[in-house]
Amino acid sequence: MEMAIKNQTLVFLPLREKKRSIKRVFEIDAIRGLLIILMVLDHIAYDFGLLMPDFFILEQGPQWLQDLSIWSEGYWFELWRINIRYVVIALFYILIGLSAYFSRNSLKRGMLLLGFGSIISIVAYIGSLLLKTNMFIFFGIISCLGVSLILYSLLRLFFLKTTGSKKAWKWIALFLSLLFLITGYWMRIDIASATLTSSNWWLISNGRLTPVLNTYTYVGGVFTPIEYDAATKWAIIIGQYWYGVDWAGLFPYMGYAFLGGFIGEALYGNKKSLIFKKESHLQNRVEKMFKPLTFIGSKTIYIYLLHQVVLAGLAFLVFLLAGTPLK
Fold this sequence. Notes:
Elements: E1 2-5, E2 8-11, H1 26-51, H2 63-76, H3 79-102, H4 106-131, H5 141-163, H6 166-190, E3 212-213, E4 216-219, E5 222-225, H7 230-238, E6 242-243, H8 250-267, H9 281-289, H10 291-298, H11 300-321
Parallel strand pairs: 3-6
Antiparallel strand pairs: 1-2, 4-5
């Protein structure tokens, strides 16, 4: 469109249409929010029960802090907590696969997650050297989430480009999910560090019978990280060895991401809530009531990446302000 004003021609470009925002799915954000809250509470116990006692002389701190630290440590090693933790992690992977169905940028998100995971590993390595303690992370949950999302996105993109059949991909995703899960559990059974019995077989699910690699040793009294060869590092990545304070092998965890992708294709074809089929007064009331929870769920990735730095810093301040001497 052009308009002449005082012998000058102005060109009016057509307005760019505002990108339509996709309405968020209530139940997915609510579940995410609940999971992130459980994870934050879990890490608070870790910081007070295991992390801070590495830096402070707990026995010389106030009694209430000693009691809190002892309770937190006991809670951390409770078997029911370990099992709940595994369920929470599995649900995180399912939701990351589900998000790949909703998102147009799932490949980019996967690469960002992998990048953040690499940064976390580098920071943890440097922190371990400076503090002379085990904070090592080689292939943690964030890295595994990133790789799982990248592989799912690439395979889905390739399959849809070559066949154009979303219906067929749905069943391929389910098949791959079961394949990865079965492979992962078979692998854990094959390398179990203890003989499986009727009373301990379920520990396979949360990796407690997976052989654990030492992360450091002392050479001539000097704190020295143990460097492993490429084959061992690959075994850590696929899930044959437990390494460091945060670990998640691709098998079976990647299977949960593909399961989430299948659920998205099967149940969320129109990308709308399964609970609220249509807009209603009840929906508005429920969404308003759970808004804090769904807001947390909508910011999961940012909270996941930053929360432990904040929590560990706060725990350090509590110990310091309570008069607990550093080691």
